[in-house]
Write a structure and sequence with these properties.
mainly alpha; 0% strand; globular
């Protein structure tokens, strides 16, 4: 059976995205296994290692591919490590972080580096978590926790931004050469 160049490209894109999904999920698993809560005992705070992959896909690949990979990773993580409540927190956090990426895209490189984008996305994620708490518990008392989450977002976003600066050149190659024959 002969494949067309477009069909071959679609298959390569699907395979690349599947591999990136596996990488993002593996980073979520590593993060789940790390005892970060012993060092930083704050509910709702994680390093966000999978966001390195999502951000690279968003900026070097396709925003749609990044959204799909992020949604599937969040769903799988909730299914294997969490609960319906954790799914809501992760989904709203992921949605807000994605919206921040969309807002930063036109200014990336000129105004924002990966560190700045990661800090903004992490704080967006925490805003989504606060909204989830507000929806679930019908109380604005969680807004008092927002300053703590915003500081944590600056720290964790800065760390993932540094990881992005280190890994993005290598991951970017997947998008430059990964779809060529």
């Amino acid at each position: 059976m002969q494949t067309t160049p477009q069909g071959n490209t679609a298959i390569r894109r699907l395979c690349r995205n599947a591999a990136l999904l596996v990488l993002a999920f593996a980073l979520s698993l590593v993060e789940h296994l790390l005892p970060l809560s012993l060092i930083l005992p704050l509910p709702g705070v994680k390093l966000g290692l999978a966001n390195v992959v999502i951000t690279v896909v968003f900026f070097y690949g396709s925003p749609l591919d990044a959204a799909i990979i992020s949604a599937v990773r969040i769903g799988l993580s909730a299914l294997l490590f969490g609960s319906p409540v954790s799914l809501l927190f992760s989904a709203l956090g992921g949605l807000f972080a994605y919206l921040v990426l969309c807002l930063c895209r036109p200014l990336s490189g000129r105004l924002f580096s990966f560190v700045g984008i990661s800090v903004l996305a992490a704080t967006g994620h925490h805003l989504g978590q606060i909204l989830a708490a507000w929806i679930l518990f019908d109380s604005g008392v969680f807004l008092t926790y927002l300053p703590v989450l915003l500081v944590a977002g600056i720290v964790t976003g800065g760390l993932t931004g540094l990881l992005l600066n280190l890994s993005a050149p290598q991951l970017q190659k997947l998008f430059k050469t990964g779809l060529k024959q």
